[in-house]
Amino acid sequence: MSEQALFVGIDVAKDRLDVAVSPSGETKPFTHNHQGLSALTAYIRALSPALIVLEATGGYHKTVLSTLAAEGLPAVAINPRQIRDFAKATGTLAKTDRIDALVIARFAEAVRPEVRPLRDEEAERLQALITRRRQLIEMLTAEKNRLAMAAQWTRKDIRAHIHMLERQLKRIDDQLKDLIDQSPLWRQKDQILQSMPGVGPVLARTLLAELPELGTLNRRQIASLVGLAPFNRDSGRFRGRRMIWGGRAHIRTVLYMSAVVAARFNPVIRAFYQRLKEAGKGFKVAITACMRKILIILNTMIKNNTYWKYA
User: Fold this and answer.
1) Which of 26, 131, 199, 301 has its CA 20 to 30 A from that of 250?
2) pLDDT tens digit string along 52-104?
3) For residue 1, is it within any domain?
4) How many domains does the chain have?
5) What are phi and psi of 10, to 5 degrees?
């Protein structure tokens, strides 16, 4: 009789790593530092698990994931929402680090998500710069909103902070441009993406950093991955409105701005948007459909290595 496969779940916190094994239910804590990671790796290697799953939380998981991958262990990070939904579905309402690790281990055994290759160092840098750019934009927006309502005694300080953030944003944009220009592959993809009217540097760089699957999936898969595939909400005779949810929200945010521009200046998207409006669709529904169409077109362009063409 063959040995039973083991599945490992790791609950990652800043200072602690809780490990659980399914189906045995064994749990073990480790300190989240260099010595703890070494002990963790040795412990898991001795188990020879079929799969190791971590929650992708707060960036703390990255060192753990890369350490396990460097040892040739089958590890993958999963969106925390999937783990929460699994816990609810299995009736696990209590929450401690040990219980969370057990839930993750059982998720690994039941769902068995595919192990994906880690990004290389340059891809990690590109994603980090894109993330930092998004943070700066959020801070800038908040400070500009405060300035409009600020008392006269604080306006000078807020303006100074805005100018500092704008300088930092310019520096990040320059670094992004240099990083993409240094890579022939990224440079070509960037040029292909920006050849489509309505697609600017921000969307192109966001897709390069946060959607490496672009060009490798079919139209339904890429739309679902970003969260632009509408899901039915039907029950019996009731037919609910189809809605999008999940996926990569940051990409949708940037795609939204691109769709608004493309609905005015891209002939294909403009005609598509006008048809939807004439059919009685509301603005939000029509723009979401445009976002999906833009993504699908870009996916095809990258897959076929072709620039935008409109006759």
Assistant:
1) 301
2) 999 877 777 878 887 887 778 888 888 888 888 888 888 877 678 788 899 99
3) no
4) 3
5) -125, 120
Q: What is the pLDDT of residues 100-127, one digit of tens each?
A: 899 999 999 998 888 876 666 777 788 8
Q: What is the CATH number of the domain that holds 19?
A: 3.30.420.40
d(CA 271, CA 277): 10
Q: What is the largest CA-CA distance in the chain?
A: 79
Find the helix or strand (DSSP H, E) in which 183 lies: none
Asked whether residue 300 falls in the same domain as residue 201, the answer is yes
> Which amino acid is present at 118?
L
Query: Rounded distance, CA 137 to CA 164, Å?
Result: 12
Across residues 257-261, what is the average pLDDT? 95
- Looking at the fold, whether 304 and 200 belong to one and the same domain comes out as yes
160, 71: one domain = no
Nearest to 310 by CA among 276, 251, 267: 267
217 found inside a domain: yes
Q: Which long-range contacts (CB under 8 A, 24 or more apart) does 141-150 make?
A: none
Name the residue type at position 299.
N
166: domain range?
A: 121-182
